[in-house]
Design brief:
alpha+beta; four-stranded mixed sheet
Length: 1023
């Protein structure tokens, strides 16, 4: 009664207000998270996070959330909470380690309506029904030929039909999507229905169209809306209603096949899956294991969806990536010709002999990312994931995109790189994080069939055709996302390779003809020139020579059409004397303001294209990574390395790839991913602290101590030992390193590369590059000789030992395993592993001394998380977001490598709308990325908030590239991150750092290859 009287006391407006507040409170109470529940973005009442999610590519939105909230986070979609699991390690934990707990599917209103509350097929069933139906399907597929030569023959026969259809196009552009759907679907048709269809069959084409539409709509925002608000969406118009009408048509099609099978069923001779299912039905009349007509229809449709869409779309992506990377397509065809030839079809027995092709197929599956999310799972009991509490009944989404692009598992996750699946010897390597078919108890049951189809179809097609697109067309790799990820529509030319071989022969004959005629023409020209010179006097000859040189210069330096613009240059010298010698990166940044993010300058004889801004640098280093992976020729480097294999930094091609893979493997082996390196860094931190304590709070220069401490970490990995800070040879090496780093980035190095023939005979600071390099190389060679004396091939101690062992196995391989290159690789590891990290720590001291309130806040976090009684560990970092943000901001504003290593275009391409010819040197300007005004809120200010969200949690930023990006990203990035955190926290845990009162520490720096602070002194007072 009191409630009735209370409501009567309201007017209509008040009643609505009361109801609104009541609904909000009820929604809050119902969806309140239990303690230690995974974090996630704040959601609106009733609708949750619906309007935050991108409808075109939801997996991109969820990937960004993982960067903010970690590998286990929650999202609310309408009335349902969903926990997302990302990254290989966490996904493995959920679907393998806790497989029994996350095997069932959650309730789905959409499937309830499709199945009318009845049987739900193979994909959405649970419990004993699912177990029995999955076992039955796997058994039947094996019986009908999965993994046998019978199925192989069926696929090869279908390949012939597909090739004939492509030949009918006669090299004209056409869409392959329909043909791939037809061919792949016919394989599953033969297993489920015992027959194949003609590509022109109307009913068959209607079924395929309906299948594609169902899969597109099931992954759309409309399906999510229906799942969240079924009682509302049932009565609203929209594309979601088409989903149900398409399903009815598909069920009718399958029911017609079912009735046809019943009429001529032979119990002693089942022809296909439907026959076998009908026979099994009689043995399970009184069970609830799903052996019914409606469930047979649903199971058959599930097999069609899984067996058609995914494989056909993978073949579509294969064409996209092979057309975008013609050199990879050619390499696959060379392997096909060498193993199979043109006279027979491929077989599965060929696959072990075709490692490169196998690697390409696996990389297509990874980059194609056919199923960006995964099937939802539901927690069968209360459990924990990633330290968070997951209550029973919670929906879990293991996100496959996060695994296939996991930066901890793949060297170049965002780049199409078949090398992910090849070892140093070119043999195929399986990767645990390759999960296009998911994993665990719910992994795709047709995985074996799909692998067979992909290999045979792709090899069969590339054996007969070369695929290209019309001139000027660039195939998009973005895709259209539903349940599966489909390429944007495209057309291709399929050119017969037989015709190409004939044309190649004609071209060879033409070249042979001109090679005979060219010397005769050259001789005639020389005779005419000789008579001209006899006619001129000395002054005329000099004038003619100067005119000819200038004419040749302008003809040689003439820019091709649509080449990037740039400042005017002097003949022969170019823009060398326009560049500001002290801060060249600032001059180049100013040029970008005038000429745009892609511009060209001339350094002596050579043109260099500079790239500025995050988007343009990303385009070159990541999107076009394969085209800009090599280094250009450098006279200075050639002199330093004496024509050898050029170490790790300046090598190219197979030598570079092999040496980089080897170095990365050795870094991992000798501690990069192990606690041993963590212990080494903490041990070195104690030595560093002891040296600082010796100063007894007096003013001192910290640079030599920081240089020694950081260099000792890479020393232990390369040489297997640390050096005392007073060791004369060690200090000489560090001094030489610092000199080289400065001079290599100076105007003198530019002058040498621009005019080497002149500069090699002139005095100047550039000669210090070569003398310091020789001194360093001599020191390293002494270490190599020391290692040879007590080398134990069965127990390598460090990088040098392992290289020497590998050298014996690769003496004739031309992969850089030679003693001269070992010294150069060690030199590169020392440069990368000491100079950059030491400089970053120096900038860290400067910025925290200049900002004492930030230093105090870091120390408060250290005291709260670690205290004073123990040393920090890497396990502390996730609990120290502010300190992590400060370190990242030091790296950004410290700008240790202002420019980057030069790259060279491997083929003609475009950047920012400009034409970049093959062989052009390209310089990505990292300064322009780290200070990009479109990416950073306050780019010119030291602001740790750049890396913190509103709640104070650490946030990764895409434009944070102190280690560069792409295939040439710093291979010691993981080690550097570990060193920076542990050294930094150890120092500020023990000392309060300051400088002389009234002294203002400079932040402009001295620029060489690295950017170094001006000399400074500090007080280190024990806390």
């Amino acid at each position: 009664m009191w409630l009735y009287d209370f409501l009567l006391s309201f007017d209509l407006k008040g009643l609505f207000l009361f109801l609104f507040i009541f609904i909000l409170i009820a929604d809050f109470i119902k969806h309140r998270n239990p303690p230690n529940y995974p974090p996630g973005p704040p959601g609106l009442p009733i609708v949750g996070n619906f309007f935050s999610m991108g409808s075109k590519h939801p997996h991109h939105y969820f990937t960004k959330l993982a960067n903010v909230y970690g590998n286990v986070f929650s999202v609310r979609l309408g009335g349902e909470k969903m926990v997302f699991v990302t990254g290989y390690k966490m996904l493995k934990e959920s679907i393998l380690t806790q497989a029994e707990n996350f095997v069932d599917r959650p309730h789905s209103p959409m499937f309830d309506r499709i199945c009318k509350g009845g049987s739900v097929g193979l994909f959405m069933s649970n419990g004993e029904t699912w177990k029995k139906q999955r076992r039955f399907a796997l058994s039947t597929l094996r019986t009908l030929g999965l993994g046998k030569s019978l199925m192989e023959q069926s696929i090869c026969e279908e390949i012939r039909y597909l090739q004939e259809e492509m030949e009918k196009e006669k090299g004209e552009p056409f869409s392959t999507a329909g043909l791939f759907n037809n061919a792949v679907s016919n394989i599953i048709c033969q297993m489920v229905m015992g027959k194949r269809y003609e590509y022109s069959d109307h009913n068959f084409q209607t079924m395929l169209t309906n299948l594609s539409e169902v899969i597109r709509l099931e992954g759309s925002i409309w399906a999510l809306l229906y799942e969240s608000f079924p009682n509302v969406m049932n009565y609203l118009p929209g594309p979601h209603n088409k989903l149900f009408s398409y399903f009815i048509d598909l069920q009718d099609f399958m029911n017609q096949e079912l009735q046809r099978h019943k009429k001529d069923l032979d119990h002693s001779n089942p022809r296909d899956y439907i026959d076998t299912f009908l026979i099994e039905m009689k043995n399970h009349k009184d069970t609830d294991l799903g052996f019914t007509d409606p469930n047979l229809i649903m199971c058959s449709l599930d097999m069609f969806m899984a067996g058609t869409e995914t494989t056909a779309n993978t073949l579509q992506w294969a064409l996209v990536y092979l057309i975008n990377n013609p050199e990879i397509q050619e390499k696959v065809q060379v392997e096909i010709d060498g193993v199979i030839g043109q006279s027979r079809q491929p077989t599965m027995a060929d696959r072990p002999n075709m490692p490169y092709t196998d690697a390409v197929i696996h990389e297509i599956q990874r980059m194609g990312n056919i199923v960006p999310l995964n099937g939802l799972k539901v927690a069968a009991k209360d459990t924990t994931l990633g330290g968070y509490f997951i209550p029973k009944g919670t929906s879990i989404m293991p996100m496959l995109t996060s695994v296939l692009f996991d930066k901890d598992e793949w060297e170049t996750p965002d780049t199409f790189n078949p090398g992910h699946f090849l070892d140093a010897e070119g043999k195929f390597v399986r990767k645990e994080a390759h999960l296009p078919f998911s994993a665990g108890k719910r992994m795709c049951l047709g995985e074996g069939l799909a692998k067979m189809e992909l290999f045979l179809f792709l090899v069969g097609l590339l054996q007969k055709f070369s695929f290209t697109v019309p001139d000027g067309v660039e195939l998009s790799t973005e895709g259209v996302t539903g349940v599966t990820r489909v390429p944007h529509p495209f057309k291709v030319h399929a050119k017969s390779r037989t015709a190409q071989l004939i044309n190649t022969g004609a071209e060879r004959r033409r070249i042979a003809f001109f090679s005979i005629c060219s010397p005769v023409l050259l001789l005639c020209s020389m005779m005419r020139g000789y008579h001209l010179f006899l006619w001129l006097d000395l002054r005329g000859l000099l004038l003619l020579s100067i005119t000819a040189l200038l004419l040749l210069y302008f003809l040689n330096k003439k820019d091709p059409p649509n080449f990037p613009p740039g400042p005017p240059a002097l003949p022969f010298l170019g823009n060398v004397f326009s560049i500001e010698a002290k801060q060249p990166h600032i001059y180049l940044t100013k040029l970008a303001d005038v000429y745009g993010n892609v511009f060209c300058i001339r350094l002596g004889r050579h043109k260099t294209v500079f790239l500025s801004g995050w988007k343009m640098v990303k385009e070159a280093l990541v999107t076009q990574a394969d085209n800009f992976v090599d280094r250009p020729y450098s006279p200075m480097v050639n002199r330093i390395y004496s024509g050898n294999s050029a170490g790790l930094f300046f090598s190219n091609g197979k030598v570079w790839r092999r040496q980089r893979h080897f170095a990365m493997a050795m870094l991992r082996t000798f501690g990069l991913a192990k606690s041993s390196t963590e212990r080494s860094i903490c041990g070195e931190s104690q030595h560093l602290q002891e040296e600082m304590e010796k100063e007894e709070g007096k003013l001192f220069d910290p640079v030599p101590l920081l240089n020694s401490a950081v260099a000792n970490i890479i020393s232990q990995i390369v040489f297997g030992r640390r050096f005392d800070y007073s060791d004369h040879d060690f200090q000489s090496m560090l001094k030489n390193l610092a000199e080289i780093a400065y001079l290599e980035g100076s105007i003198w190095a530019l002058l040498y590369d621009a005019c080497p023939a002149l500069m090699k005979h002139l005095p100047g600071p550039h000669n210090g590059i070569f003398s310091n390099s020789k001194s360093l190389e001599a020191s390293i060679r002494r270490e190599i000789e020391r290692h040879k004396l007590d080398l134990n091939p069965s127990d390598p101690r460090d990088y040098i030992d392992t290289f020497l062992i590998e050298e014996k196995h690769n003496r004739r391989s031309e992969q850089g395993f030679e003693e001269g290159n070992l010294a150069l690789c060690c030199l590169d590891l020392f440069m990368a592993g000491s100079e950059t990290t030491s400089k970053t720590l120096q900038w860290g001291l400067i910025y925290l001394i200049k900002n004492p309130h930030i230093q105090e806040k870091v120390q408060a976090e250290i005291d709260g998380v670690i205290g004073q009684s123990r040393q920090p560990t890497m396990a502390d970092r996730p609990n120290m977001p502010y300190t992590d943000a400060v370190i990242h901001e030091i790296q950004r504003i410290g700008n240790i490598v202002p420019l980057n290593g030069l790259r060279v275009a491997a083929k003609d391409t475009t950047l920012g709308g400009y034409f970049i010819p093959k062989g052009t040197s390209v310089m990505p300007n990292l300064t322009s990325v780290l200070f990009d005004k479109t990416e950073w809120e306050t780019p010119d200010t030291f602001n740790p908030g750049h890396f913190l969200d509103a709640e104070g949690k650490f946030v990764r930023r895409e434009a944070f590239l102190p280690f560069s990006a792409g295939k040439r990203a710093c291979l010691g990035e993981g080690l550097a991150r570990m060193e920076l955190f542990l050294f930094f926290v150890n120092l500020f845990q023990k000392f309060r750092l300051s400088t002389l009162e009234g002294v203002e520490l400079r932040t402009e720096g001295i620029t060489g290859a690295t950017r170094t602070p001006y000399p400074f002194k500090i007080y280190a007072k024990a806390r």
